[in-house]
Design brief:
310 residues, alpha/beta, FAD/NAD(P)-binding domain, 2 domains, 7-stranded mixed sheet, 5-stranded parallel sheet, 22% helix, 27% strand
């Protein structure tokens, strides 16, 4: 890797980052992508992807490999390290990695994504992508006429449950509290649906299967401590996301939930630093919307660099 000042450094390696890299490389910005500890992002833990335009069916890891190869083809440089700090008070910006590598860049795109909150129970890792998921919109079609459980009581859980009614009439919501926490409108939509049942005051304590797919879960009532098994075909964990913005704290503005606060399109509170994908998106959280915002961020960065005669 060259030691000169980079025109553009992209932090992250999911759809937003790699799409930004493709556009930036084709604009001759010679971008550097710092991949982080989870190269490829959330799609690396996804089995089949069927909602990527132009592709009927592709495995998540293969899709990410294809996009990375395209970015490399156009001249993107990659660094398999993790960013630990960005210094935004001086220009050019200074980026430090976990190996104490110092990189200077005129502009930055933050595309570090968000991490779905997990249950951290036995069997969760084993059956991740084998019936256990965090995205009903992504994977719902695979559970047509199947037994589905959704964990959570907020808007995300209600949205997942409502979406799943397109595919199955056997939907159960498991919620740790004695009442839902979603907005009133979202709650009522679920409460009025006869095909959705709700188990309150309960948590999932174990996920089990046949080695290939999930087949049952154990839930425990938090008041009585009674445990019972539910036979299922799919489990959607909808207890929220944590944006990966630790490197941004105190450096650029974030909202009350920790997501990057965009001031205009993809521009952050610091001129020359842009953000794309789930790190700034608490609503859509789709690979295709992340990719689209990556394109936008690259175009905005290119325009800004040109305005600075860089």
């Amino acid at each position: 890797m060259n030691d000169d000042i980079k025109k553009l450094v992209i932090i992250g390696s999911g759809p937003a980052s790699l799409t930004a890299a493709i556009y930036a490389a084709r604009a001759h910005l010679n971008p550097l992508v710092i991949e982080g500890s989870n190269p490829g992002g959330q799609l690396m833990g996804t089995s089949a992807v069927e909602n990527w335009p132009g592709t009927l069916h592709i495995m998540g890891p293969q899709l990410m490999m294809n996009i990375k190869e395209q970015a490399q083809y156009f001249g993107t440089e990659f660094l398999s390290e993790t960013v630990t700090n960005i210094e935004t008070s001086t220009r050019p910006f200074t980026i430090t990695t976990h190996k104490n590598r110092i990189i200077k860049s005129h502009s930055i795109i933050i595309a570090t994504g968000a991490t779905a909150k997990r249950l951290h129970v036995p069997g969760e890792d084993t059956y991740w992508g084998k019936g256990v998921s965090t995205c009903a919109i992504c994977d719902g079609l695979f559970f047509k006429n199947k037994r589905v459980v959704i964990v959570g009581g907020g808007d995300t859980a209600m949205e997942n449950a409502s979406f799943m009614t397109k595919f199955t009439n056997d939907i159960t919501i498991v919620h740790i509290l004695d009442k839902l926490t979603a907005s009133a409108t979202m709650q009522q939509r679920i409460l009025d649906n006869e095909h959705i049942r709700i188990i309150y005051n309960s948590t999932v304590t174990d996920i089990d299967g046949n080695g290939s797919v999930v087949t049952n879960i154990t839930i425990r009532n938090q008041k009585t401590q009674e445990a019972r098994k539910l036979e299922i075909d799919g489990l959607f964990i909808a207890i929220g996301y944590t944006p990966n913005t630790s490197i941004c704290k105190g450096k650029i503005d974030t909202d009350a939930w920790g997501y990057v606060d965009l001031k205009k399109e993809t521009q952050t509170s610091v001129e020359g630093i842009f953000a794309a994908g789930d790190v700034a998106d608490s609503r859509y959280r789709q690979a295709i919307t992340a990719a689209g915002s990556g394109c936008m961020a690259a175009l905005d960065a290119e325009h800004w660099l040109r305005s600075q005669n860089i």
